[in-house]
Amino acid sequence: MFSWIATLSAKERRAFGACVGGWALDAMDVQMYSFVIPTLIATWGITRGQAGALGTAALLVSAIGGWIAGWFADRYGRVRTLQIAIAWFAVFTCLSGLAQNYNQMFVVRALLGVGFGGEWAAGAVLLGEVMRPEHRGKALGTMQAGWAVGWGASALLYALFFSILPAQLAWRALFLIGILPALLVFFVRRYVEEPEVYLASKAQLEKSGDRPSFTEIFRGPLLPITVLGGIMGTGAQGGYYAVTTWLPTYLRTERHLSVLNSSGYLAVSIAGAFFGYMTGGILADAIGRRLTFLVFAIGAGAVALIYTMIPFGNQAMLVLGFPLGFFASGVFSAMGPFFTEHFPTRVRGVGQGFAYNIGRAVGALFPTLVGKLSETMPLAQAIGLFAGGAYAVMAIAAFLLPETKGKKLAA
Predict the structure, then answer these.
(1) What is the DSSP string of 33-65?
(2) Does the N-terminal or the C-terminal CB of the chain have fewer CB atoms within 10 Å?
(3) Residue 243: pLDDT over 80
C-alpha cells in the first residue's frame, strides 16, 4: 500500500507531504463542527435546521472558494494558492471559537469555507501535475486519506476537551486550537515547487500573449466533462455530507450513546474511511477511474441505507461503521486524477475547481435538508433517504464518464 512512495523523487515527495498534510489539517478543522452540534443546540437554543444551516454555509461557500482558487492557481501558481488557502481556513476556524451568537458563527463558518474549498482545489491540481501517471491515483487517494487522519484527530481532540472542560468552554477550546495548521504554510513556502508542466504552460501562454478564458470549460469537448463531473461530485458530496454532518448527533440523540461510545463508533467509521480512501486510489490505478467510481457509489448507497434504516443492535451497528466509512469516502479517491487528466493545463485549475465544487455547492444543501426533514421524521430516515438518492445519482453519472487511466499531461 505504501511501498511506491519510496520510488518518488524529492520534488514529488515534498509536494505529496504538503498536500496530504494540508488536506488532513483542513479535515481536522472542518470536522470539529460536526462534534459540537449538540452542544451548540443546547447552549444557544438553536434548532436542528439552524445547526444544519451552519454546516451548509461552510460547504456552500467552499464551492465558491474552490472555484476562485482554481482560477487563482492557473493565474498565479498552485503553490501560492495552497499557502493562502491553508492560512485562511486555520484563521477562521480559530475565530469560530470566539463567536458569541448564532449570527456571528454563521458569518465565520461561511468565510472558513473559502479556505476549505481552496485547499482541495490547489492541492489536488498541484499533486496531480507533479505525480507521474502510474502513481497519480494512489497519490491523490492518499491525499484524500488525509481527511480520515484529520477527522480522527478532531474526534480525539473532542473527546479530550469535553472530558476535561465544561461543555460551554470545551467547544470554544476545540475551535481555538484550529489555528495550528497555519504552521504548515512555512513548509510549503520553503520546500514545495511548482509543477514543471504548469511552468511550461505558463511560459508558452506568456510568449504567445494568450489568456485562457474562464468560460473555456463550458465549450467544445470540455463541456460534457464539466457537466458530468459536476453531477458526479454532487452525488458523492451530497451523500457524504448528509451522513458525516449528522452521524454524531444521530448516535447521541436517537441511539442514546454516551460521548465515549459515540467516539468508539466514529473510530470504526474513520478507520473504514482511511482504508476506503487508500483502496480507492489503488483501484483507480489498477482498474481505472470509471469502474472505481461505480464500485464505491453502489457500495456507499447500499451501506448508508442499511446503516440508518434497519434497527440493528449495538454490535451490528459497530461492525457496519467500517463499510460505511469505507465506501462513503472511497468515492473521492479517483476524482482528483480524473479531473486532472481531463482538463488541459491552461485551465486545469479552474476546470477542476469548478467541476468538483459545483458538486459541493449542491451537495452542501443536504445537511440543511436533512435537518429540516428530521423535524418531521426520525433523523436516521432523513439521513438514509438523502444519502441513498445521492449515491444513485453518482452511479449514473459515473457510468457515463470516459476513462483516463495512465494519461500523460502536456503543457
Answers:
(1) HHHHHHHHHHHH---HHHHHHHHHHHHHHHHHH
(2) N
(3) no
Q: Do the domain assignments include residue 205?
A: no
Q: Which of 69, 40, 43, 44 lies closest to 55, judged by CA?
A: 40
Cβ atoms of 23 and 120 within 8 Å: the answer is: yes
At what angle are helices 289-309 and 335-342 packed, to 10 degrees? 150
User: Distance between CA atoms of 131 and 234, rounded to whole angstroms?
Assistant: 26
Q: What is the mean pLDDT of residues 34-51?
A: 86
Q: Rounded CA gap, 297 and 236, in Å?
A: 7
The C-alpha angle 297, 393, 244, rounded to 5 degrees, equals: 60
Per residue in 96-114, pLDDT tens?
999 899 999 999 999 998 9
Residue 281 domain flag: yes
262: confidence class by pLDDT, cuts 50, 70, 90: low
If you average pLDDT over every residue of the chain, what do you get?
A: 86
344: left (phi over 0), alpha (psi -120 to 50) or beta: beta
Buried/exposed code over 136-150 (b: 16+ C-beta within 10 A; e: otherwise): bbbbbbbbbbbbbbb
Helix boundaries (H) for 166-221: 167-176, 184-191, 196-208
**Residue listed under C-alpha cell 459545483:** 358
144, 19 Cβ separation under 8 angstroms:
no
Find the domain containing 60 and state its range. 11-184+219-399
Crossing angle, helix 102-130 and helix 348-363, to 10 degrees?
140
What is the Cα–Cα distance from 41 to 168, expressed in whole angstroms?
Answer: 11
The pTM (predicted TM-score) of the whole model is 0.85
Q: Which three cell numbers stand for residue 40?
A: 451548540
Query: Which sign does the torsion angle of CA 150, 2, 322, 340 carry?
Result: positive
**Of 381, 147, 152, 383, residue with least CA distance to 266:** 152
The grid coordinates listed for 193 are 515547487
CATH number at residue 352: 1.20.1250.20
318 domain residue, yes or no: yes
